[in-house]
Specification:
By secondary structure, the chain is an alpha+beta fold. The chain folds into 2 domains: 31-174, no CATH class; 191-305, no CATH class. It has 10 helices and 12 strands. The protein has helices at 3-25, 51-58, 70-75, 77-85, 177-194, 196-206, 224-250, 258-277, 285-306, 311-316, and strands at residues 31-39, 42-50, 88-92, 95-96, 99-109, 112-122, 129-134, 145-152, 155-162, 167-171, 211-214, 217-220. The strands form 3 sheets. It has a 6-stranded mixed β-sheet with strand order 5-6-2-1-8-9. The chain has a 4-stranded antiparallel β-sheet with strand order 4-3-7-10, with no helix packed on it. The longest helix is centred in the C-terminal third of the chain and has 27 residues, at 224-250. The protein starts with a helix and ends with a helix.
């Protein structure tokens, strides 16, 4: 076997191993779903927290058999409520709204079983602006995110709370469509730039835009205009694919199991990286960006679906 062929075969085997490993270990990031409904001085809350995350923090699986039973969960209800509510503060101005656990349930989201904690908070004055200080799991997993849905007489609001923005305030008043659009545009940009899977995939596809393949080697591209056009096609295709996915998910036309989505996302990153080492797609990388952009969009769509937003609200996102 010629040295070049041996080297190429080695890269193929290496990429195949990475692909299998990434697909096998892919999983949905740590998220919780916090729903709040404000009425006068009262806040009714429901907090869906993944059992796998609570098990890591509190050790729910007492017999270590990798299965959390209802009896194991029920025995930890008080500990779960204490732990969760100690990492959440609701306030109006400088006044706190004390929280009290009301009920414990279990629900299933697209990625598995969740403990459901229902609670109430009573504020000293009528709530016209609510401040939420969310700190759940940040000491254990800085990448954890809280997905917030806030309902009030003024309408429905959504937000993402993370370790960089744990404290957020919301004025409960009607907002114009332009303000709503700006807020969702900001969240969309943050979703792209805070997702390492998106960035790795895009950077792997964009790297060859400034290069040209000659004699089985990469060389700098002499044509700046062609490189910029290549970049524009890849980014536009990826963004368009995300939009198509969200529309299909919002209208309920297509649903894909989360496990398959996350595995495919991991595989897309590996394939895009390996394409730079041993190219199998050179001139039409925008098609690759569009294809895997559709799949990556399903990951975002499943998160929005788990928030149980109104169909019209989901579609606007």
């Amino acid at each position: 076997m010629a040295p070049a062929t041996l080297r190429e075969s080695s890269w193929i085997l290496f990429c195949t191993a990475l692909l299998i490993s990434a697909t096998a270990s892919a999983h949905k990031p740590s998220d919780s779903y916090l729903s709040l409904r404000v009425t006068d001085k009262q806040v009714a809350g429901q907090w869906d927290i993944a059992l796998r995350d609570l098990d890591y923090a509190l050790g729910l699986d007492t017999n270590q058999n990798n299965q959390i039973t209802w009896n194991e969960l029920r025995a930890q209800h008080r500990a779960i409520a204490s732990y969760a509510l100690s990492h959440l503060q609701l306030s109006v101005g400088d006044s706190l709204c004390p929280t009290t656990a009301a009920a414990h349930l279990v629900d299933h989201h697209s990625d598995g079983a969740y403990a459901v904690l229902r609670f109430t908070a009573t504020c000293p004055v009528r709530v016209t602006a609510l401040t939420i200080d969310y700190r759940l799991f940040f000491d254990l997993d800085p990448q954890h995110k809280g997905l917030l849905r806030l309902d009030s007489p003024a309408g429905q609001r959504t937000a993402v709370v993370d370790s960089d923005r744990p404290r957020q305030s919301f004025a409960l008043k009607h907002r114009g469509w332009l303000v709503e659009f700006g807020q969702y545009l900001k969240l969309g940009i943050w979703h792209i730039w805070s997702g390492f899977d998106h960035l790795l995939f895009l950077f792997s596809l964009l790297l060859p835009a400034v290069l040209r393949r000659r004699n089985k080697q990469w060389a700098a591209s002499p044509d700046l205009r062609a490189s910029l056009w290549d970049v524009a096609k890849v980014i536009s295709a990826f963004t368009l694919a995300h939009s198509v996915t969200l529309i299909l998910a919002a209208l309920g036309f297509v649903t894909i199991p989360t496990r398959l989505v996350e595995s495919t996302i991991a595989a897309s990153v590996v394939l895009a990286a390996c394409n730079n080492l041993y190219p199998f797609v050179l001139e039409r990388r925008w098609m690759l960006a569009f294809t895997f952009g559709l799949i990556q969009g399903f990951g975002f769509a499943s998160v929005l679906s788990d928030l149980n937003l109104e169909p019209g609200t989901l579609l606007t996102k």
